[in-house]
Amino acid sequence: MAKLDGKVAVVTGASKGIGAAIAKALAADGAAVVVNYASSKAGADSVVEAITSAGGKAIALQGDVSKAAQAHSLIEAAVTQFGRLDVLVNNSGVYEFAPIEEVTEEHYRRQFDVNVLGVLLATQAAAKHLGEGGSVINIYSAITHLNTPNASVYSGTKGALNAISGVLANELAPRKIRVNTVSPGFVVTEGTHSAGIVGSEMAAGIVAQTPLGRAGQPDDIADVVRFLASDEARWLTGEVITASGGMR
């Protein structure tokens, strides 16, 4: 019996990168997975196809989690489709680097709306349906430890997420809902490629600081999330697991 048989999971921002790997990993362990996307329907459909071709259960659902109505509709549609909700993975995130001289209201609001407000709204909607043993997993970032130049806003969003995760772990614990956080180091994804990070001096510097000597891959993060979603992590809440190859 797979570890997640009978469970239903929603993974936000799952059309590519880490989110796609998480959706596939949860499905491989038996969960029925909702592959959420904001704009990339083709990407989400491709993830669903990969899951169903391997014998798993998945559907793609559009929804911008930074908008309250869409975040709540996403969760309601997931419950309507599969009858329950057991796992929420708050993976949706955007990043944009800029020196302090170039920080604008739009730059700030876009990142805080998705990376922070989106987590609050999705968790608010999910909490109505998560029962005893439910699991919320937030995707954080090791960038908050690096004090990376030009990342003040993005790092700020992830610092806020860390604080929120701790509060929610205590707030939802009486209902036996667990809240944990995974903090990836540098991971090679479509996003880090398109942002010009892969192959850059910054990436080389990060790898040089990584004891295991390489950049991360989406599956490295997905396997940690798979563990936290399972009953094997039943005694864990309020934890931050840094998946960074030893980089601090």
Automatic annotation (TrEMBL):
Pfam families, sorted: adh_short_C2
Record EC number: 1.1.1.47
Class of the enzyme per the UniProt entry, highest EC level: oxidoreductase
Highest taxon in the source lineage: Bacteria
Keywords attached to this entry: Oxidoreductase
Keyword Oxidoreductase assigned: yes
Transmembrane segments: none
Example of a GO MF term: glucose 1-dehydrogenase [NAD(P)+] activity
Family under the similarity heading: Belongs to the short-chain dehydrogenases/reductases (SDR) family.
The name this protein goes by in its record: Glucose 1-dehydrogenase
Organism: Methylorubrum zatmanii
